[in-house]
From TrEMBL:
Residues of the Peptidase M14 domain: 195-420
Protein's UniProt name: Carboxypeptidase Z
Single GO BP term: peptide metabolic process
Every FZ domain range: 50-169
Disulfide cysteine pairs (residue numbers): 131-155
InterPro entries xrefs: CARBOXYPEPT_ZN_1, CARBOXYPEPT_ZN_2, Frizzled_dom, Frizzled_dom_sf, Peptidase_M14, Peptidase_M14_domain
Family: Belongs to the peptidase M14 family.
Keyword presence, ATP-binding: no
Record-linked Pfam families: Fz, Peptidase_M14
Length: 420
């Protein structure tokens, strides 16, 4: 029996054959194209030079540079690959694992390997000495949680020596990223410019001032902010760095509320003024420095300041940057010893000095900035201090809480009430 081909079966078979042919053709073409690209790549490699691209990793938004290049040092070829990698996840959680130790240094170091700096389409390696220093300081924190130093932070493998040209991924934390502004050369050496200072510019100005007056000034850090910025102090005395018996210790703190910037700028200006006037022979300033050890901490809340400064003066509400990066108000974060003193005042024979911090205080969140000031106060016997705020004409003294818990606004004038 002969099977007759129906009218409809003919085109179907034809179509199938055509389809198979097309697929084969497509595969051949693709192979050819890949081969061609490979060949062209080898013939004209300059067409394929990798380019700098913007960094868009959420854990690395605060690095000091803006561009990186793929693949990175771990041969991860795209942002997506990096984001799903165990290395990236690790640097994102290291802060919690190490309970805040070595933060944010380790994360920034990790970013410098996962998203290295790229400039003019050239990738730059992070500095080996920075890696080695951090490893030395942080190994005990890793030991404490039984964890090895991460392989991708191998200082020998992914980092470079200074002679090879490297970048310091932690420069920002030490305030070393400063764009210098050229001033006219005919200005006197004691000229002081009144302007706003970023964190880096502040640190640089304080260090420069201390080196200009190195016989009467020095800088030091009392600790670090939540985001890891050093809390820089400039000190003036005839014996910088040393307490002298019976010489009074004085301190000014500024910018406790990050968005209250006047105190911070005034203290930076005051530091430069003290140095310049001492050099110029101003007798009042010389007497002050010769007889007092003066400590100025212009910014206790540098993280909040940077946040407020980013917003810009005209747009900043009164809350942005007021708190720390941990969302704590430093002005409400110290222990309330005034209420404790009032309570003790009613107890016969109870001491009103050297009141210990109540245990309950430590149950709350204590900011690293607060702890740094408490440690500072324990290490130096300050006799007079002030913290400069902004936005209101008011002076508050110790014991400024109302003695009666029910009467919050009890008027209690100080001897200088008339000065107002
Ligand atoms: Zn304030």
């Amino acid at each position: 029996m002969r099977v007759l081909k129906t009218a409809s079966s003919l085109p179907v078979n034809k179509n199938r054959k055509m389809f198979i042919k097309c697929v084969i053709c497509y595969i051949v073409l693709e192979l050819f194209r890949a081969q061609m690209i490979e060949t062209i790549f080898h013939m004209f490699p300059f067409f394929f030079i990798a380019k700098c691209v913007d960094i868009s990793l959420s854990s690395c938004t605060d690095v000091t540079y803006t561009q990186t290049m793929y693949p990175n040092f771990l041969d991860q070829k795209s942002r997506e690959v990096i984001e799903y990698s165990s290395e990236y996840i690790l640097i994102s959680v290291l802060h919690n694992l190490l309970q805040g130790e070595c933060n944010p240094d380790l994360r920034l170091l990790g970013c410098s390997v996962l998203a290295p700096q790229c400039e003019k389409d050239k990738v730059i390696k992070p500095c080996r000495h920075v890696c080695e220093n951090l490893k030395k300081n942080c190994l005990s924190a890793f030991d404490a949680i039984d964890m090895a130093w991460p392989y991708f932070l191998d200082c020998d493998r992914f980092f470079a020596g200074e002679e090879e040209g490297c970048f310091d991924p932690l420069a920002k934390l030490r305030g070393e990223v400063v764009v210098e502004e050229d001033l006219p050369s005919d200005l006197p050496a004691t000229f002081i410019q009144f302007k706003h200072h970023s964190y880096s510019q502040m640190v640089s100005t304080l260090k420069k001032t201390a080196s200009r007056c190195s016989h009467i000034a020095t800088t030091y850090s009392i600790g670090r902010s939540f985001e890891g910025k050093d809390l820089f102090v400039i000190e003036f005395s005839t014996k910088p760095g040393h307490h002298e018996l019976l010489k009074p210790e004085f301190k000014y703190i500024g910018n406790m509320h990050g968005n209250e910037v006047v105190g911070k700028e005034l203290l930076i200006y005051l530091a430069q003024y003290l140095c310049s006037e001492y050099l110029l022979g101003n007798p009042r300033i010389q007497t002050l420095i010769n007889n007092t050890r003066i400590h100025l901490l212009p910014s206790l809340n540098p993280d909040g300041y940077e946040l407020a400064a980013e917003e810009g003066a005209g747009y900043n509400g009164w809350v942005i940057g007021r708190q720390t990066a941990q969302n704590l108000d430093l002005n409400r974060n110290f222990p309330d010893l005034t209420s404790e003193a009032y309570r003790r005042a009613g107890i016969r024979g109870a001491r009103l000095d050297h009141i210990p911090i109540p245990q309950s205080y430590w149950w709350g969140k204590v900011a690293p900035e607060t702890k740094a000031v408490m440690k500072w106060m324990r290490s130096i016997p300050f006799v007079l201090s002030a913290s400069l705020h902004g936005g209101e004409l008011v002076v508050t003294y110790p014991y400024d809480y109302s003695r009666h818990p029910m009467e919050e606004k009890e008027f209690s004038p100080t001897p200088d009430e008339k000065v107002r």
